[in-house]
């Protein structure tokens, strides 16, 4: 009987009718863990390659934007030179080298951004500070376009503007052109009144009546700006012959 049973068991095992002893559960667990690790490593490698591709693309975009920005700044500087902005800057001893080019480019760029004439912006700077980025008025206005710190805070929509920040010439031009453009809109494109508002404040400009002594006195500022504007529009040869 034992021999018969052994033979039946062997035949059954051969035919797959009886379950053979399985591998060690620890081996199964190890095999699963190893497989999962391989799969995780594959996914990690895929993610790393994707990240590298995205980084390379971002670097290409940055390089492209940098090249475009440099080319645009050069074009803006050339436009400023063509318009004669450098003629006012040549007398400034506080602006040199790269900063001079940055200011020239900023005048053109910010004027274009705000719908203003770059020559008008240069004329305002000439009257306000004679292109001295460290100029301070007796009421505390600062920089090229003589921005008051509270006005800068209002334009930037926060109170964290330190007066020293306004000595940054590019920031000063950004704020000054934005402010002048807002005043032009507020006064319906009336340049004379917008310039009075820029110099003396919007409330003062609104309260003025033509022909009054106050109007005549405050009109000296827009007249000075327009005179500087006319000077830049006049060819250098004609200016020299006067």
Describe the structure.
The chain has 242 residues and is mostly helical. It has a domain at 84-240: Lysozyme (Orthogonal Bundle). It has helices spanning 2-15, 25-83, 85-89, 97-113, 118-129, 149-156, 169-186, 191-200, 202-207, 213-218, 220-233, 236-240. The longest helix is centred in the N-terminal third of the chain and has 59 residues, at 25-83. The protein is elongated, with a radius of gyration of 37 Å.
Rough shape?
Answer: elongated
CATH topology of the domain at 84-240: Lysozyme
| Low-pLDDT sequence parts | 1-20
Query: Span between N and C termini?
Result: 136 Å
Helix content: over 70%
Biggest pleated-sheet summary: none
Mean pLDDT, to the nearest integer, reads 82
Structural class: mainly alpha
- Would you list the SSEs in sequence order as H and E? HHHHHHHHHHHH
**DSSP helical segment count:** 12
As a percent range, the share of strand residues is under 5%
Using the coordinates above, name the CATH class of the domain at 84-240. Answer: Mainly Alpha
Radius of gyration over C-alpha positions, nearest whole angstrom:
37 Å
| Second-tier CATH architecture of the domain at 84-240 | Orthogonal Bundle
Strand tally, please?
0
List strands and helices in order, with pairings.
Layout: H1 2-15, H2 25-83, H3 85-89, H4 97-113, H5 118-129, H6 149-156, H7 169-186, H8 191-200, H9 202-207, H10 213-218, H11 220-233, H12 236-240
Helix pairs in contact: 2-4, 4-5, 4-7, 5-11, 7-8, 8-11
């Amino acid at each position: 009987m034992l021999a018969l049973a052994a033979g039946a068991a062997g035949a059954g095992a051969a035919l797959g009718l009886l379950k053979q002893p399985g591998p060690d559960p620890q081996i199964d667990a190890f095999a699963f863990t190893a497989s999962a690790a391989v799969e995780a490593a594959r996914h990690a490698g895929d993610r790393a390659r994707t990240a590298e591709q995205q980084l390379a693309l971002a670097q290409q975009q940055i390089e492209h934007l940098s090249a475009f920005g440099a080319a645009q700044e050069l074009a803006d500087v050339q436009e400023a030179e063509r318009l004669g902005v450098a003629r006012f800057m040549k007398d400034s001893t506080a602006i040199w080298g790269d900063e001079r080019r940055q200011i020239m480019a900023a005048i053109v760029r910010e004027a274009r951004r705000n719908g203003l004439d770059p020559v008008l912006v240069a004329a305002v700077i000439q009257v306000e500070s004679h292109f001295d980025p460290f100029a301070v008025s007796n009421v505390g206005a600062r920089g090229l376009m003589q921005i008051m710190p509270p006005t800068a805070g209002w334009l930037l929509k926060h109170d964290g503007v330190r007066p020293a920040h306004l000595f940054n010439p590019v920031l000063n031009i950004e704020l000054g052109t934005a402010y002048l453009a807002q005043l032009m809109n507020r006064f319906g494109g009336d340049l004379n009144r917008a310039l009075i508002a820029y110099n003396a404040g919007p409330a003062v400009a609104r309260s003025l009546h033509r022909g009054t002594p106050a109007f005549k006195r405050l009109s000296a500022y827009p007249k000075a700006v327009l005179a500087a504007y006319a000077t830049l529009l006049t060819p250098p040869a004609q200016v020299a012959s006067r």
